[in-house]
Amino acid sequence: MSPNSKYVYFFGADQTEGKAEMRELLGGKGANLAEMASLGINVPPGFTITTEACNYYFKKDKTLPPSLWDEIIKNLKSLEKAMGKTFGGKKDPLLLSVRSGARVSMPGMMDTVLNLGLNEDTMKALAKKTSNNWFAHDCYRRFIAMFGNVVLGIDGEHFETILERKKEKRKVEFDTELLVDDLKGVIKDFKALVKKKVGHAFPEDPVEQLRMAIEAVFNSWNIPRAIHYRRLNHIPEDWGTAVNVQSMVFGNMGPTSATGVAFTRNPATGEKKFYGEYMINAQGEDVVAGIRTPQPIAKLKEDMPASYDELLEVYQTLENHYKDMQDIEFTIEDNRLYMLQTRAGKRTAAAAIRIAVDMVNEGLISKQEALLRVPAEQVDQIFHPMIDPKSKVKVLGKGLGASPGAATGKVVFSPDAAAELARKKERVILVRTETSPEDIHGMSVAQGILTAKGGMTSHAAVVARAMGKPCVSGLGELSVDTRKKKAWLNGTEIKELDAVTLDGADGRVMLGSVKLVQPRITGYFTQLMSWVDKVRNLSVRANADTPHDALVAREFGAQGIGLCRTEHMFFDEDRILLVRKMIVADKEKTREEALKKLLPIQRSDFTQIFKAMEGLPVTIRLLDPPLHEFLPADPKEIKALAKQMKVSPSALTKKIHSLKEANPMLGLRGCRLGLMFPEIYKMQVSAIIEAACKLVKKGTKVYPEIMIPLVGHVEELRQVRSQLDEVAQDIIKKAKVKLDYKVGTMIELPRAAITADEIAAEADFFSFGTNDLTQTTFGLSRDDSGMFLPEYIEMGVLDRDPFVSVDVSGVGEFVRIGAEKGRAANKKIHLGICGEHGGDPKSIEFFNSLKLDYVSCSPFRVPTALLAAAQAAIKDPKP
Ligand code: PEP
Ligand code: MG
Predict the structure, then answer these.
(1) Is 293 exposed, middle or buried (0-12, 13-18, 19+ CB in 10 A)?
(2) Whole-angstrom Cα distance, residue 369 to residue 360?
(3) pLDDT digits (tens, 9 = 90+) for 757-786
(4) CB 381 within 8 A of CB 349
(5) Residue 449: which residues within 8 A CB-CB, separation 6 or more?
(6) Whose C-alpha lies nearest to ligand 1, atom 9?
(7) In what order do the strands lie in the sheet with 478-481?
(8) Confidence band of 390 (pLDDT split at 50, 70, 90)
(9) 1 and 67 in contact (C-beta within 8 Å)?
């Protein structure tokens, strides 16, 4: 950034210096204004002050580059010449708009000042020149309010109140009904307000106004809402904003003027139809502020037919040029059309899919471009109900959007209450401080789940995603009192049976039951997914624990099961007692009896899952969680269990206490259970192999893969595997069938990744458990991280939640080392991911670069993962 850098670029009036590709320097708005001007589209001329000038301003303690002001004045002169008007002139004054414009659009986050250059003299000149006294006064009162708010920092409400009072006094509804004398009064009151609030008069010198406005737009890069938006959207701090200084055109010059916004296709559905609205005799901010109801764009054809035709031509030119749906802003000044902005329009997932497919069919873009046009992380939107965009909502608080989709229902605070109400066909939302495996029965019948604690891989989040159920987790402001059946959220008391609505995509919790709309799966989606399969390298499997989930996943395109968590099967009503008996049994005989009864139940589970996934691999993970997770904690429940088990409650309580661990996540779990209680794993392997043999006999194609969790040392795998192989071989031999099964391990501990070469010698496959690997690499509890991770991100310590998007330089490095060492030691080893990161597009890009074989994710994320895998392959076309 030398002091000689060029900081200002002119556009319009045949002197355009910028172009669309210069968005880093000119911001999106500035680059596109220049591009439109070069295309011969009518844009009001102006100039863009670069993002580099903004960065200089912040680096140098809020001083403008020394050469900048001279450049601005030079460009201002060119602008005056092009317009035939003078800035601050007393005959035909040039008025300016000063607008922000970052590299990517940050809608409504930064500041804008319109009608700049007005003072008592120029207002009079404007009135005379346009022979429209009302218009000139209307512009002036708008300018004072906007400048007062944006540049001088006065709350906009104060200006609104003055205007509202005037309308009340005059008994009129709309601003346009006020008379010139009324506006004069408003202007006087506005100026008095400014003086009172800032201690000096409203600045009259237009050059001074311009300088203040430019600095205010720069400063708006660092106002809290802009910072917050950047953090949420991962926009780097050092991009800065450009400032566009443009000659004003007026939509408020009377009935032959208007202003409007439009999309070149419907942003909600993607339908190829010009879509938008406009307002006659208004300026841009009126349309957004909802002061009057705007008219649908089709009506412009009647109101201003010539401008409408011209607008149609412009929008087609823009779409053909950018080859994407555009979001445009325009103003008609006295029947002359001006374009003020064009940018790629924001759209729903359904619209993105339809537009991409239509544009391929129209010959505008290639199939690969179409695949890149649909944001993979939004694809699962199309399977879940959504909040009706037309609904008015009262947001009580915002947690983590842990599982997408919207849900509405009556609040319950216990899984039993959920189950009871669900039996009566009521829709319920389960609200808990946090969930545990014991809550499954309530979770499975609830419409949605809300928790105060827990991050994106907490129990609630993982289970909800697997069930395809909306979930908001980690809402720190929520406090739940299960006994009183009440919760409090930011000052609102929520009682049992109160209606609430959750949006699991963005984490909002709303009061009352908000209308939901059901999206439909379309032929466009099917078409797009058929292109996906031709380009991707990664296979996509599903994390599914039930035959139903397996079928859903298969329908979405899953190529097998990458993780079947068998513990989820243990919580069903008909088996939890047996599981508990097995765990607390003191005698081996009692344990074996319980296991004997569990065996046929598990065999039938696996039979059904194998059938649902016929012809595809099914990875079944042996028991993983610490045993006390299956045991009751509540004394009442302990008493009931003791009765069922015919033991004394005190003996049972003692036993349960003896199983408690200080750090259960690092305790007796995973393969450690398999070594301490070999009969549990033996039972599970028997159930798997017996089910598979039976099906093979019937001609069903089954490919079982047995997965051992939490291996940290090769010896753990060697010993567990040798016991299990013995059991499996024995069954296969007796059944006299040919069955190929694999035994592999999860790589979810740093030590396993580092010694992957040793472990690979004993394993047919590795599946990276990136949830535990993230937990153990960061030393950060999965279940407690929700308490402060959001703040970590807010503070900029971490860029994103590492439980959502893989931490490439830390956790990712372990995956890379594990994959490399594993492959070096065992050429045939198969490598996959089964942590939640397997469904995250950004992580998938990384896994694709490591050339892993597959990712596995919850069924509803399968299409997202398929598309993300295709996008990763297109972006990184290495063979
Ligand atoms: C993991 O740790 O990444 C994993 C898939 O296993 P779980 O989430 O069940 O611990
Ligand atoms: Mg794990």
Answers:
(1) exposed
(2) 9
(3) 999 999 999 999 999 999 999 999 988 887
(4) yes
(5) 403, 429, 430, 432, 435, 443, 460, 464, 469, 470, 471, 472, 473, 502
(6) 565
(7) 478-481, 486-489, 492-495
(8) confident
(9) no
Q: How far apart are CA 776 and CA 682, in angstroms?
A: 28
CB-hemisphere CA count at 13 Å for 605? Answer: 27
User: DSSP secondary-structure letter at 146?
Assistant: H
- What's the Cα-to-Cα distance from 229 to each of 375, 432, 478, 510, 794, rounded to whole Å? 19, 29, 23, 21, 10
Active-site choice (459, 568, 628, 830):
459
User: Phi and psi for 165 in degrees, rounded to 5?
Assistant: -60, -40
Decide: 242 and 50 in contact? Cβ < 8 Å: yes
Q: What is the 3-state secondary structure (H, E, C) of 428-450?
A: EEEEECCCCHHHHHHHHHCCEEE
Q: At how many degrees (to 10) do helices 51-59 and 206-219 cross?
A: 80
Whole-number Å distance between alpha carbons of 670 and 772: 11
Q: How much is the pLDDT for 471?
A: 92
Q: What is the CA radius of gyration of the chain?
A: 32
d(CA 718, CA 722): 6
Q: How many CB atoms lie within 10 A of CB 827?
A: 7
| Structure-token pair, residue 146 | 């906007």
Decide: 247 and 96 in contact? Cβ < 8 Å.
yes
Top mutation candidate among 566, 671, 807, 834 for ligand 1, by most atoms within 8 Å of CB: 834
In terms of Cα–Cα distance, which of 270, 272, 291 is closest to 282? 291
> From CA 538, how far away is CA 593, in angstroms rounded?
44
CB contact set of 32 (below 8 Å; sequence gap of 6+):
20, 23, 341, 342, 343
> Please, which residues have CB less than 5 A from ligand 2, an ion?
748, 769, 772
Q: Ligand 1, from 465, 619, 770, 771: best to mutate by most atoms within 8 Å of Cβ?
A: 771
Task: Decide: 402 and 502 in contact? Cβ < 8 Å.
Answer: no
Residues paired with residue 11 on neighbouring β-strands, in sequence order: 46
Instruction: Tell me how far CA of residue 364 lies from CA of 231, 370, 724, in angstroms.
Output: 34, 10, 57
Q: Is the predicted pLDDT of residue 2 greater than 50, yes or no?
A: no
Q: Closest Cα partner for 113 from 126, 100, 129, 127? A: 100
Q: How far apart are CA 542 and CA 425, in angstroms?
A: 30
Centroid of ligand 2 to alpha carbon of 224 (angstroms): 38
- pLDDT reading at 290 higher than 60: no
How far does residue 681's CA lie from ligand 1's centre (Å)? 18
